[in-house]
Amino acid sequence: MPTRAEVKAWRSLHRGKGRRDTGCFLAEGPRLVGELLDWPGRTVAVLYADAAPAAPGLRDLLGRAAGRGVRTEAVPEALISALADATTPQPVIAIGEVPVSGWDDVGPGTIVLLDGVQDPGNVGTLVRTAVALGIAGVVGVGDTADPWGPKALRASAGAVLRGPVFRTDAPDAVARLAERGVSIWAAAADGPPMDRAPHEPVALALGSEAHGLSGTLLAAARRRVAVPLAPGVESLNVAAAGAILLDRLRSGNRGG
Fold first, then answer.
1. E strand segments, 76-122
2. How far apart are CA 227 and CA 3, in angstroms?
3. For the segment 167-189, what is each residue's pLDDT rounded down to a tens digit?
4. For the CA atoms of the chain, what is the radius of gyration?
5. If we measure between CA atoms, which residue out of 114, 79, 105, 107 comes closest to residue 93?
6. Average pLDDT score over residue span 90-118
7. Is there a cis peptide before residue 164, judged by omega within 30 degrees of 0?
8. Does residue 21 contact residue 12 with C-beta atoms inside 8 Å?
């Protein structure tokens, strides 16, 4: 049975401070736990409700955890509910260590900058899209929602584990991209449609729907780009706009 100190620490993982203090995050449900067990990073523990039916999927997860030497424990369903963030908790959760990633982990290719995107669902969806499209890295800037928070992690469907995904501030992002010779393209509603493929490495900067991009990134941007919209349509959700622009960048880089 987990100790009181462990339960207190794991409950704190709902909050950014708890994740920063412990260096851990919470994965809920069979899908995310399975992603975690496929990931080379450290899984601290897998907990499952002692009243849960021994379904083949759960047995498989526990077998994989045991094969990796991960601690597994049957616990009361009430404890699962207390630890889980989801409104309807699933019978299995896991605690993993947040990986330490940075600029050295970002390879060649398009980079995504999320500047002050505060909705965790949008952050998770953009991470999932970026990974699916083969983006080199996702960098959270400013007060962007933590991609390791429970809601963002669920929205990413575990794609955040396939990183690199990390956070920094706008001046560091601008300086590091300049060192790499990477141009910043700013997604802006008042920008022209993306009408040509980049002939250079690009970082696509996406800002919050409420405030847009910070002055630092806008000042450093080489281009502004937008998704052309039908008359009468003011804007797109940042996750939708980001997906369209990233796909166009990828198609352009492939000569599409």
1. 92-97, 111-115
2. 52
3. 999 999 999 999 999 999 999 88
4. 20
5. 79
6. 94
7. yes
8. yes
The beta strand positions in the chain, using DSSP E, are 24-28, 43-49, 71-75, 92-97, 111-115, 137-141, 165-168, 183-187, 202-207, 223-225
Whole-structure pTM value: 0.90
Residue 146 — φ and ψ, nearest 5°?
-65, 120
Residue 215 CA to its chain's centroid (Å): 24
Q: The domain 103-253 is classified under which CATH number: 1.10.3720.10, 3.40.50.261, 3.30.70.260, 3.40.1280.10? A: 3.40.1280.10
What pLDDT shows up at residue 196?
Answer: 67
Homologous superfamily, domain 4-97: Ribosomal protein L30/S12 (3.30.1330.30)
CB 86 within 8 A of CB 150: yes
Find residue 92's DSSP bridge partners.
Answer: 48
Q: What is the pLDDT of residues 234-256, one digit of tens each?
A: 778 899 999 999 988 876 554 43
Please report which helix (H) or strand (E) contains residue 131, including its range. Answer: helix 120-132
Helices (H) and strands (E) counted in the chain, each on its own, are 10, 10
From residue 256, how far is each of 2, 202, 229 by CA, in Å?
54, 17, 21
For 134, other C-beta atoms within 10 Å of its C-beta total: 11
3-state DSSP of 181-227: CCEEEEECCCCCECCCCCCCCEEEEEEECCCECCHHHHHHCCEEEEC
Per domain, the residue ranges of the chain are 4-97, 103-253
Dihedral (CA of 210, 125, 63, 49) sign: positive
